[in-house]
Amino acid sequence: MPDAVPSDSAASARVVLITGCSSGIGLSTAVAAASAGFITVATMRDLAKDTALRSAAEAAGVTLDIRALDVTDVQSLGTAIDAVVADHGALDILINNAGRGYVGTAEQIPIDDLREIMEVNFFGVAAATQAALPHLRVSQGRIITVTSVGGIVGQPFNEAYCAAKFAVEGYMESLAPVAATVGVDVCVVEPGPVATEFVNNVGVDIEAMFANAGDYLSAMQSYLTYVMSHFIDGSAQTGDDVAAVILEAMTADQPAFRYLTSAWAEEFTAPKLVDGDGHAIQAITRSWVG
């Protein structure tokens, strides 16, 4: 997919809020958006982790409005989004990027861990979307949510993560035709393997995981060998690669519902997807709401 090259007018005075910007895709997207001329509010749960973002912004010669935002704190989330609108006069684009991975299988996942993954990866997205929608209706804006090929294809030892991403996909696919009736575009961006800090943030202790795998040890070893091969053979994208696709979704006059970020992601999801960019399904469901 070609990199977007937005005109100055495409981003002029438009305000974008991005969650999960301390590293990886969020960091790259914040810098790319600011470089394209967007007023960029880059958020993260812990401002003590803003060093990499500030360094990247300085290297790119751009200015960011960096703020604390915890997508799992619903009350402060609404207050934070309202404050962005008060300070900048509008909110034009929400990019739901914050999230975390989890490796483990059903028999061995503590239910509290499953709830936490759903809280961050699904309920955090839903809460941010709900808080932003009143402002996006006013601006005729856009919601862009970073999901994953794991929101299309369930993957071994990713039951919790894929469940959350499947939920996000269903939520956004259902919201899109309704939001369109009030002038708000809804898009999802689905990366495959991405070589970012997200991999480290999964927090997997491989030795401990193997020690506790029991009857699943052979399958787990095979799975991790397969996954790690994509970070060795060069098929993994960079955060900048994904940010370029997000920028395309931000600036398109008529954005697609679905953006797969690489040829690998398109090939991987092809057996399940006939409607690659979501156009056909959206045409059907939009007809239900006039």
How many discrete domains? Answer: 1
What is the CATH class name? Alpha Beta
Shape: globular
Strand percent estimate: 5-15%
Overall pLDDT score = 91
Please write out the topology.
Layout: H1 8-11, E1 15-18, H2 24-35, E2 39-44, H3 51-60, E3 65-68, H4 74-88, E4 93-96, H5 111-139, E5 142-146, H6 159-180, E6 185-190, H7 197-201, H8 206-211, H9 217-229, H10 239-251, E7 258-260, H11 263-269, H12 279-288
Parallel strand pairs: 1-2, 1-4, 2-3, 4-5, 5-6, 6-7
Helix pairs in contact: 2-3, 2-10, 4-5, 5-6, 6-12
What does this structure look like?
This protein is α/β, with parallel strands linked by helices. It has one domain: Rossmann fold (3-Layer(aba) Sandwich). The chain contains twelve helices and seven strands. The protein has a seven-stranded parallel beta sheet, with helices on both faces. The two termini are 32 Å apart. The N terminus is likely disordered.
Please supply descriptive tags for the structure shown above.
290 residues, disordered N terminus, Rossmann fold, alpha/beta
Summarize the structure.
Helix content is 50%, strand content 11%. It is of the alpha/beta class and 290 residues long.
